[in-house]
Write a structure and sequence with these properties.
This protein is α/β, with parallel strands linked by helices. The chain folds into 2 domains: 237 residues, 3-Layer(aba) Sandwich (Aminopeptidase), CATH 3.40.630; 114 residues, Alpha-Beta Plaits. Helices cover 33% and strands 23% of the residues. It is built from 10 helices and 14 strands. The strands form 2 sheets. Strands 1, 2, 3, 4, 5, 6, 12, 13 and 14 form a 9-stranded mixed beta sheet that branches. Strands 7, 8, 9, 10 and 11 form a 5-stranded antiparallel beta sheet that branches. The protein is elongated. The protein starts with a strand and ends with a helix.
Length: 354
Amino acid sequence: MKVDDKGSIWATLRGIEDKPPIIMGSHLDTVKKGGRFDGVLGVLAGLEVVRTLVENNITPRIPITIVNITNEEGARFEPSMMASGVLSGKFDKSEMLKKKDSDGVTFEDALEKIGYTGEIKNRLEEGTAFLELHVEQGPVLESENFAIGVVEAVMGMVCYEIEITGESDHAGTTPMAMRKDALFAMNDFIQSIRPQLGKLDDELVFTVGRVNVKPNIHTVIPNKVVFSLEARHKDESVIKEVEKKIQEHSQMIINQGDCDVKLTKMWFRDTVWFDEKLIDLLEKAAQTLGYSYKKMISGAGHDAQFINRIIPSVMLFVPSKNGKSHCEEEATTWRECEQGANMLLEVILTMVKE
């Protein structure tokens, strides 16, 4: 077992030939009050596959590596997928080490405290393939009665922070026509943009997930509201249409003359398409094992999307009960977990025999 300079853990079963390994894994970190399957399943299933090979005296032709990747969720230290982002060249290591949690502790200090600073020489440098098993975190597989999701891509997304500034005045003495209420302006913005985004494409998903109101006092008219608006879709042209709508509706609020609007583009990613040969191997594995499967696009981000920049990668999903994830109710049956692990084993056995 080795620990790299971002705290990721790598363990390798040697192969007959000294070639770049096949890597399996995911992450062990979670969000507050998160579930016990998100990420963890991919790591434990990788361990189970390797244990199965060892117990059956099967020495793979090429090495097999299991990985637990640090800070996928970004729950304590933002951004998410931090370690895989550094590994793939998406993020700068020195900048990531300086990231602080809500208590002011840096990521570097937190790694040192638990003894997981590791060494840069322990980083993965090359690989034959990366396979990430994950729970779906959504309702599709269960509702459509599929055992396996063969993931073709992680959809692109954009996230804006929208700041609307008005003026604070007394909530009881200021006539409605003379107010510059930032919260009412936000409400106008959301009510007007929601139906228009909904008409762009049936597969587009969009969310206002964070709202901060100031001064947040019930007797004071809000003078500032800062909120997020993110949208996700596989087609870059649809994402561009979302950005166009955000610009148009921000100008609408400004034109009303009561409040100012500031837009900050916080996050953007293109759709990441996984390796076609690995997708084909997953389909064949499902057919061999007799598992029903569906080719699908992931709406959530995963380490595989960054690792795909340097190593051919693919993901597979197993169902989430009632589509629940990032919550304590998250659940996947042991049978479904077993089927996911069997898929990994089948693909591994195929690849090491080639």
